[in-house]
User: Which sequence fits this backbone?
């Protein structure tokens, strides 16, 4: 026979809580030191003498202060000069070509008239990152330039920064190593 309490006979348990003082909590969230400050300092970890050995070196170096273009465009400008071409004589930076695009003119990054070549630097964001519509627009421009007898060579921004002399020499031979021609997607 088991003993089961009836509904009205409940078991009463008494729990005693010790008298403990709970610390007061801070109502707001504290920001770390320097939070909201405009003075930002970035300090590299490790030995400074070793760090310079591991930094990526761009052959073209830093663009001059008066350069108005992008860093990859500077590298191609530098590469054209290292391949024996002179700005203003042998090539034009930001050349306008008639009859392409919504306006009367369309701009190419570099025009080399003696070679009948235009070089376009393909940035990951501005050309590949804008989606298929931007790639289609670039291909439409290529077709319009080819109709005028100008062969457009694309050079990806990473290639321009890594080895501008080589990719410019390949462009002058008519070789296009860009991802837009080979796959349509950046690497």
Assistant:
């Amino acid at each position: 026979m088991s003993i089961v309490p009836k509904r009205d006979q409940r078991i009463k348990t008494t729990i005693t809580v010790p008298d403990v003082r709970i610390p007061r909590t801070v109502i707001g969230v504290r920001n770390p030191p320097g939070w909201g400050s405009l003075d930002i300092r970035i300090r590299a970890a490790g030995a400074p003498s070793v760090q310079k050995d591991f930094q990526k070196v761009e052959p073209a170096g830093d663009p001059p202060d008066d350069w108005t273009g992008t860093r990859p465009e500077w590298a191609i400008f530098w590469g054209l000069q290292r391949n024996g071409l002179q700005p203003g004589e042998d090539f034009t930076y930001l050349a306008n070509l008639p009859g392409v695009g919504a306006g009367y003119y369309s701009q190419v990054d570099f025009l080399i008239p003696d070679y009948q070549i235009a070089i376009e630097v393909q940035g990951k964001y501005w050309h590949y990152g804008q989606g298929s519509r931007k790639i289609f627009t670039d291909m439409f421009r290529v077709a319009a330039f080819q109709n005028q007898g100008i062969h457009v060579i694309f050079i990806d921004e990473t290639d321009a920064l890594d080895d501008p002399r080589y990719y410019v020499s390949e462009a002058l031979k008519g070789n296009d190593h860009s991802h837009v021609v080979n796959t349509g997607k950046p690497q």
About this structure: The first strand starts at residue 92 and ends at 98. The chain has a mean pLDDT of 78. Helices lie at 48-54, 71-82, 124-128, 132-147, 157-162, 164-172, 179-182. The domain at 73-182 is CATH 3.40.960.10 (Endonuclease; Chain A).
